């Protein structure tokens, strides 16, 4: 018999029981590695009004949803899920500073430009193949730290130097790429 997926409400209740705290008051909520895994982000997450860091990594989530009420969210960790696009992220655009979304099948970056305060984007090992998608990151003027290795776009470059040159020329605002500081000529 197949196990029913864990709902966000159940995961939050389990977190409260384990921590002996109210989730609505907590600044950091970790719901990664749920068993059975969470498959849907839902409105229960919007009760986490004080949460600044939410981790839902290593579940089976296929889309970003249910976070509109999270008005203090700064760090969202969604690595190792089944998320295909950034749709739904716009509801936290005003506060989100870090998005950790590596190991997902994301191939398009449509909508990333609304994240005006995004400083850190970890999205290695996704499915981005085209420069036109990568170039959308130019709209994220606060972006400083980008991890993009493991995407077909990066892997299809002749060598790592070509990748770093191309990426840093396209994204003048970043200071760190794939964990390594970018050294720019200041002449």
UniProtKB/TrEMBL annotation:
UniProt entry tagged with the keyword Cytoplasm: yes
Keyword Repeat: yes
InterPro entries linked: Leu-rich_rpt, Leu-rich_rpt_4, LRR_dom_sf
Protein name: Dynein axonemal light chain 1
Similarity remark: Belongs to the dynein light chain LC1-type family.
Keywords: Cell projection, Cytoplasm, Cytoskeleton, Dynein, Leucine-rich repeat, Microtubule, Motor protein, Repeat
One of the GO biological process terms: outer dynein arm assembly
CC terms in the record's Gene Ontology section: axoneme; dynein complex; microtubule
Subcellular location as annotated: Cytoplasm, Cytoskeleton, Cilium axoneme
Gene3D superfamilies hit by this protein: Ribonuclease Inhibitor
One MF term in the entry's GO annotations: alpha-tubulin binding
């Amino acid at each position: 018999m197949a196990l029913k997926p864990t709902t966000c409400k159940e995961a939050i209740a389990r977190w409260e029981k384990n921590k002996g705290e109210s989730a609505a008051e907590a600044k950091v909520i970790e719901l990664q590695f749920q068993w059975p895994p969470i498959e849907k982000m839902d409105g229960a997450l919007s009760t986490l009004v004080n949460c600044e860091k939410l981790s839902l990594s290593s579940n089976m989530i296929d889309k970003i949803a249910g976070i509109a009420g999270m008005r203090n969210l700064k760090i969202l960790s969604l690595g190792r899920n089944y998320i295909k696009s950034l749709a739904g992220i716009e509801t936290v655009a005003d506060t989100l500073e870090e998005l950790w979304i590596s190991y997902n099948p994301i191939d398009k970056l449509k909508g990333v430009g609304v994240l005006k305060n995004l400083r850190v984007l970890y999205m290695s090992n996704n499915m981005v193949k085209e420069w036109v998608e990568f170039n959308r990151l130019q709209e994220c003027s606060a972006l400083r730290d980008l991890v993009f290795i493991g995407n077909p776009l990066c892997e299809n470059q002749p060598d790592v130097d070509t990748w770093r040159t191309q990426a840093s020329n396209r994204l003048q605002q970043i200071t760190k790429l794939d964990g390594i500081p970018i050294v720019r000529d200041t002449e």
